[in-house]
Specification:
- It holds the Pfam family APH.
- It comes from SAR92 bacterium BACL26 MAG-121220-bin70.
- InterPro entries: Aminoglycoside_PTrfase (IPR002575), Kinase-like_dom_sf (IPR011009).
- The protein is an alpha+beta fold.
- The protein folds into 2 domains: 89 residues, 2-Layer Sandwich (Phosphorylase Kinase, domain 1), CATH 3.30.200; 243 residues, Aminoglycoside phosphotransferase (APH), C-terminal lobe (Aminoglycoside 3'-phosphotransferase, Chain: A, domain 2), CATH 3.90.1200.
- It has a 5-stranded antiparallel β-sheet, covered by helices on one side. It has a 3-stranded mixed β-sheet with strand order 6-10-7, with no helix packed on it. The protein has a two-stranded antiparallel ribbon with strand order 8-9.
- Strand 8 and strand 9 form a beta hairpin.
- Helix 5 crosses helix 10 and helix 7 crosses helix 8.
- The protein is globular, with a radius of gyration of 21 Å.
- The termini are far apart.
- 35% of the residues are buried.
- The mean pLDDT is 93.
Length: 345
């Protein structure tokens, strides 16, 4: 057993291992690499193996995870089956999806096949009925709350920059434009973190989905831009736009998008991505500063590159892009973890 396990957790594991999973002698509980949350994961050497999760109920949405898992199950979306759960203590036993993230196999040769799989699964998610009792709305308040992370954690806490009143007004106007663009889109179920580290390749070569406890209903382009402008994997703009418009055609065939031109859809996609990446700048900064997960700083350069790339495309975002380059980039150049945009092309 791992030394950092409580006796209560290990006793619960032994009590609730399902009958279909043969216990090994001795039982080993091996810690796995965690994610951006407070959950801790362990692999059990049962046959077949299981994943034990210690997910503090005061910090994690365990009830939401279980509710959404059941909804996904009805649609045939592959997610780890829940074998046991104790909500009061935040303990779960899950099906073991293995270790192979989609990110680990993405190359120029595999991107077409793997993204077809990921997009097919996303279409299944987006066709789910909206149940407000399970999925809360991705509304203006939540979008605004996320955007505020950019100034609080990235600009102020990470870089130590004070924003003057003129810049504050410009940023407030930008936020309003991004929120309006998001809210005018058709509403579907949104995973909210749909990317190559939250998609896994299973033993039968299909795609499994994890980390979906924050799912909501909201803008139809959100998960698509999360996938195609992945914070951990970069693809050429031409490929991203091509895949975006092909995906739009599938949405039109399903009746999920109607009467929207290609350029309008791309604008939705781009501005949704800017909202997401401003939020992510704040989240990665908070993870590094508050939670000591400093490796996330190494992923900021790509997120910044995406944001500046989009800022150059539209009249309502260009002022922000200019301000960022003038006021923020000089501070970034002093950071060892930052790579200039040109180095990412």
């Amino acid at each position: 057993m791992s030394n950092d396990l409580s006796q209560g957790f290990t006793d619960w594991i032994l009590a609730y291992v399902p009958a279909g999973n043969k216990l090994a002698e001795p039982l080993t509980v091996s810690p796995l690499k965690g994610d951006a949350g407070f959950r801790r994961y362990y692999r059990l050497n049962t046959q077949p193996s299981l994943i034990a999760v210690n997910s503090p109920p005061s910090k994690e949405k365990n009830e939401a995870y279980v509710d959404i898992s059941l909804v996904f199950k009805t649609a045939g979306i592959r997610r780890p089956s829940i074998r046991a759960v104790d909500f009061s203590r935040g303990f779960l036993l899950l099906e073991d999806f293995g270790d192979q993230l989609v990110q680990s196999v993405l190359t120029d040769k595999t991107v077409e096949y793997r993204y077809q799989q990921a997009e097919s699964t996303l279409l299944s998610i987006q066709q789910l009925p909206i149940n407000p009792q399970v999925f809360k709305a991705y509304d203006a308040d939540l979008l605004s709350e996320e955007l505020d992370l950019f100034q609080q954690w990235f600009v102020k806490e990470l870089l130590g920059i004070r924003i003057d009143s003129a810049a504050q007004l410009m940023i407030k106007t930008l936020y309003s434009d991004l929120i309006c663009s998001a809210l005018e889109q058709p509403k579907v179920i949104v995973h909210r973190d749909y990317h190559s580290r939250n998609l896994m390749i299973l033993n039968d070569d299909s795609i499994g989905v994890i980390d979906f406890q924050d799912a909501v209903y909201g803008p139809i382009t959100y998960d698509l831009v999360s996938l195609l402008r992945d914070c951990y994997v970069r693809w050429p703009m031409a490929l991203v736009q091509e895949r975006t418009l092909k995906y739009k055609q599938k949405l039109e065939q399903l009746g999920l998008v109607e009467g929207v031109g290609d350029q309008d859809f791309l604008r939705w996609f781009d501005l949704m991505g800017l909202q997401r990446h401003l939020k992510v700048m704040g989240i990665f900064s908070r993870l590094a500063l508050r939670d000591q997960k400093v490796d996330y700083l190494n992923d900021l350069s790509l997120v910044i590159a995406y944001s500046l790339e989009v800022a150059n495309l539209y009249p309502e975002t260009r002022e922000f892009g200019y301000w960022f380059k003038q006021e923020i980039t000089p501070w970034l150049l002093k950071k060892s973890w930052y790579k200039e945009w040109s180095a990412l092309q």
